[in-house]
Design brief:
- The complex is a heterodimer of chains A (about 375) and B (about 130).
- Chain A is about 20% helix and about 35% strand.
- Chain A is built from 9 helices and 20 strands.
- In chain A, the strands form 4 sheets. Chain A has a 6-stranded mixed β-sheet. A 6-stranded antiparallel beta barrel of chain A has the order 15-18-17-16-19-20. Chain A has a 5-stranded antiparallel β-sheet with strand order 6-7-8-5-9, covered by helices on one side.
- In chain A, strand 12 and strand 13 form a beta hairpin.
- In chain A, helix 3 crosses helix 8.
- Chain A is globular, with a radius of gyration of 21 Å.
- Chain B has a single domain, classed as RNA polymerase II/Efflux pump adaptor protein, barrel-sandwich hybrid domain (OB fold (Dihydrolipoamide Acetyltransferase, E2P)), CATH 2.40.50.100.
- Chain B is built from 3 helices and 9 strands.
- Chain B has a 6-stranded antiparallel β-sheet with strand order 1-2-3-9-8-5.
- In chain B, a hairpin with a 4-residue loop joins strand 1 and strand 2.
- Classes of the chains: A alpha+beta (about 375), B alpha+beta (about 130).
- Chains A and B meet through loops of A and strand 4 and strand 6 of B.
Chain lengths: ~375, ~130
């Protein structure tokens, strides 16, 4: 990392702490982030087997206040928002008019202790500025809505793994173990406001906390103390990537971009054509997506299991009978399966589990089998 | 072999040259520092015996969970042996990078490049990098 790059980088509230832990820092989407503290595989296994904590403060946090917020987000997102109950979290996509994916987001519907309701959008760090600009360009004329970018005033910590709930439970004033997956609540941590959600990007059970920036290290120390009985350890972006890949969660810039639509990405569940009353919904990208749906998909996101031990990587060509039929978007060596796995887009006719293809790994054709996603699913 | 007796590339390969039947044979591996930096090794591509390698050029690659790293030859010559068992036991690189973790032996055809570092100079470089 050269000086110019680090000067242009944002630092999370835990930057010094990461350094004290001996983390290897990288620039990720304009943020100085820990890639790993010990080894990616160790951090990955600790998440699958017990509990780890990730600093995910680089994720964008956009708050929407006002009566018009639901209607604005309904128009911006592929899934309806205004029918969400307070306490719900919903995965959704933001598309452009051509149906290309601008970002994948989590929408939180929250209520402050004083009873004010609002929506929170958690967006990818790499897309935050683009999304704010896009939203401002779609702003309604009668703006009964206010957008606050809360990213820099808050921090976000992800506690993930089978012991995550037991770690967090004693620290917050709500019963996290009774909270369902994809539920959220504004609560307190040491008498400071804290948004708790049962969410994550690892395929494990877990919790994410959004807290005031100045409270971050304090909250972190409480979590580390509470998790000591489970040998809690920090985990970095390296493990976050292998964990989400095993769980087949798409990553923006790899499985998702503005040239990829939600249907070929296998995210049709995140497109709601009708509202709860059964009326057709209007949202940006709907017409283009309806046309794509009618004319059929050209390509689809699939899983690949590679022969041997050599991983495929982003950008490698997928071939069938010597002809290019697709492209790898993410690949790694799966610590859980102990074999190389990848996600790729391939021609629709090949997108069938069991089909044999080859991947061009830096000049060598490595046989691979199309397989169903995800590669890993937790049992409990 | 002791780490102190080896020569190093700035790209973290080590080399030890010995006379054997009138030939100069170079044993090549990667440093403990490199192994520690790479972490989570999953794959290694060895060169084929009989191929020629050139100082400063790629002769194979090592891959971790995160990324692929090329291996650069410290010397020019012909590959006369490779450590066949190493790719299936990459942990050897953690436990014994300078003995059991050797990668290839090369019959050296040219003088050693002038830019190889002795142990002290290499340590200094690693300190600066780390």
């Amino acid at each position: 990392m050269n000086d110019a790059a680090s000067q242009n980088s944002n630092q999370t509230a835990l930057y010094s702490w990461h350094q004290q832990q001996g983390a290897r820092m990288v620039d990720f989407a304009g943020w100085q982030m820990p890639i790993q503290y010990s080894s990616i595989v160790d951090e990955h296994q600790a998440t699958r087997q017990s509990v780890t904590i990730f600093d995910v403060s680089h994720m964008g946090r956009l708050r929407f206040n006002g009566d018009g917020a639901g209607a604005l987000l309904d128009r911006l997102l592929t899934r309806s928002v205004s029918d969400m109950q307070v306490g719900q979290v919903r995965y959704s996509l933001m598309c452009n008019h051509e149906g290309g994916i601008l970002d994948d987001v989590l929408v939180y519907h929250l209520e402050t202790p004083s009873g004010t309701r609002y929506f929170l959008l958690v967006v990818n760090a790499s897309n935050r500025e683009k999304i704010v600009q896009w939203i401002e360009a779609q702003w309604p004329d009668q703006a009964a809505v206010e957008l606050c970018d809360r990213t820099l005033e808050t921090s976000m910590l992800a506690i993930q793994g089978p012991n995550a709930i037991a770690t967090v439970e004693p620290l917050v004033s709500i019963n996290v173990s009774e909270m369902k997956y994809f539920r959220t609540k504004v609560t307190n941590q040491m008498n400071k406001p804290c948004i708790v959600s049962r969410t994550g990007y690892t395929g494990e059970d877990g919790v994410e906390l959004i807290i005031r920036q100045g409270q971050t290290e304090h909250v972190l120390q409480n979590i580390l103390a509470a998790g000591r009985q489970f040998n809690i350890s920090p985990a970095g972006l390296g493990a976050r990537d292998t964990l989400r890949l095993e769980s087949a969660m798409p990553l923006y810039g790899h499985e998702l971009n503005e040239e990829i639509n939600p249907l070929e990405a296998g995210l049709a569940f995140a497109v709601s054509w009708q509202d709860q009353a059964g009326n057709e919904r209007e949202f940006i990208g709907r017409d283009a997506l309806a046309e794509i749906k009618d004319s059929g998909l050209q390509r689809q996101r699939v899983g690949l299991k590679m022969d041997g031990r050599r991983p495929a990587r982003d950008g490698y060509t997928v071939l069938a009978d010597g002809e290019s039929v697709g492209i790898v978007t993410s690949g790694t060596f799966s610590p859980t399966l102990q074999k190389p796995i990848a996600m790729a887009y391939v021609s629709a006719e090949l997108a069938e589990p069991g089909k044999q293809v080859d991947v061009d790994v830096r000049g060598t054709l490595i046989p691979a089998t199309i397989c169903p996603l995800p590669f890993y699913k937790r049992t409990s | 072999m002791n780490a102190e007796d080896l020569l190093y590339c700035d790209t973290h390969e080590w080399v030890f040259v010995a006379e054997q039947d009138g030939q100069k044979i170079a044993t090549v591996g990667i440093s403990a520092f490199a192994v520690e930096q790479l972490t989570d090794l999953v794959y290694m591509e060895l060169p084929t015996v009989g191929t020629t390698v050139t100082a400063g050029e790629e002769f194979g690659e090592v891959e971790s969970v995160k990324a692929v790293s090329p291996l650069y030859s410290p010397v020019s010559g012909t590959v006369v042996a490779v450590n066949e068992g190493l790719p299936d036991n990459l942990d050897t690189l953690n436990t014994d990078p300078y003995q059991a973790g050797w990668i290839m032996k090369v019959e050296v055809s040219d003088d050693l490049p002038a830019n190889l570092l002795d142990h002290a100079a290499y340590q200094k470089q690693c300190g600066e990098a780390g």
